[in-house]
Amino acid sequence: MNEEKRDEVDGTGEKQTLGKMPQPPLELQVATILLVLLICGVGIAGNVMVVLVVLRTKHMVTPTNCYLVSLAVADLIVLLAAGLPNISEVVASWVYGYAGCLCITYLQYLGINISACSITAFTVERYIAICHSIKAQLLCTVSRAKRIIAGVWLFTSLYCLMWFFLVDTSQVTFADGAQVSCGYRVSRTLYLPIYFLDFALFYVIPLGVATVLYGLIARILFSNPLPATPQHARPGSGHQGQPSSSMKLSCRGNKGALSSRRQVTKMLAVVVILFAVLWMPYRTLVVVNSFMDPPYLNIWFLLFCRMCIYLNSAINPIIYNLMSQKFRAAFRKLCKCEQKRTENVTQYNIPVYYSVMKDNSHDSSDHDVTEQEDLNGFPSMAKKSKLSS
């Protein structure tokens, strides 16, 4: 995000001499303030709700949702550290001082990079859960997801520490006042390897991995659906030639599990596609400007790039609400917009189901949740099947 800051001040990256202080057009200031307040307001509220519904609802604590919480926290950091400071920058000079320049820049890159890592993590988790369901019993657990998330945050936090040494504040004095900016400490060309490394690690590689893995997932879900009926039936469970009630329930459970997996996969694929599309303008601008002198810094295109980044961090909770019945029910419950009777009915219609399996390496039941129930059926139906037998 720092790539454009110094150049936005003077258009060329060189310090200006005495003269009248340049001011952004009034229409740009108005558009920036309105769009930032709208997008960041919706995004902050939505991502806070995602974190709250997962942490406060026991059946929402699943491996996939743990990665979505990590993504929500990263998006919150982007909106707070990149979005809101943009308002003060467009109407005045940098007002956060030297410490603010270092910390805000660090948090911007931290949130951006962790968003990409979280997307990659839940893509790999979905691939294992769907394409290798036996391994998923061991690999797709909440405890493992938490360890992976902790590792991602630790690695990215250390990786982004370099920005404390790469940015600084500068001041240009004009006839009518001084203008402070937060930008590069040294020549712009020295930052090109860092930007290309970021481009590869946190954009190209995540999208490449996602493209391959979602292709494999789609082949499993849409080309090789689950069998309509169970292959084996217990002797004596029903009359010959007629399916027993347990077989009907199992069949219904298989269909429900397939529908559930498709729905969750579509939702996560949409999140990845939006990440690719909304980050493309800014990533393209960085690459193009690396070979252009002077760089292309049209103020309206810069505004468009920024709004796409903020929108990417704000739109995910909306996607969850539109495409996941489970998240929609949890959001309604959090907002107290649903009566208890409706909530009790909803829990049998949620799209993803999870069971509890004992993980011998942990004593806490919070670490024993796996994706198995998400893959293989409905808990209520399994219980009825046992009673009917």
TrEMBL record:
Keyword line = G-protein coupled receptor, Membrane, Receptor, Transducer, Transmembrane, Transmembrane helix
Pfam annotation, one family: 7tm_1
SUPFAM superfamilies under this entry?
Answer: Family A G protein-coupled receptor-like (SSF81321)
Give the region (Disordered) as residue ranges.
1-20, 231-253, 361-389
Biased composition (Basic and acidic residues) is annotated at 1-13, 361-370
The Low complexity compositionally biased stretches are 235-246
Q: Which GO terms describe its biological process?
A: phospholipase C-activating G protein-coupled receptor signaling pathway
Keyword check for Transmembrane helix? yes
The record's subcellular locations are:
Membrane
The molecular function terms in GO held by this entry are: thyrotropin-releasing hormone receptor activity
Transmembrane spans? 30-55, 67-84, 96-124, 145-166, 194-217, 264-282, 297-323
**Domain of life of the organism in this record?**
Eukaryota
All copies of the G-protein coupled receptors family 1 profile domain together span 46-320
Q: Which GO terms describe its cellular component?
A: membrane
Protein purpose: Receptor for thyrotropin-releasing hormone (TRH). Upon ligand binding, this G-protein-coupled receptor triggers activation of the phosphatidylinositol (IP3)-calcium-protein kinase C (PKC) pathway.
Q: Which family does it belong to?
A: Belongs to the G-protein coupled receptor 1 family.
Which PANTHER family does the record associate with it? THYROTROPIN-RELEASING HORMONE RECEPTOR
Record-given protein name: Thyrotropin-releasing hormone receptor
Please name the source species.
Alligator sinensis (Chinese alligator)
Q: Which gene encodes it?
A: LOC102386980
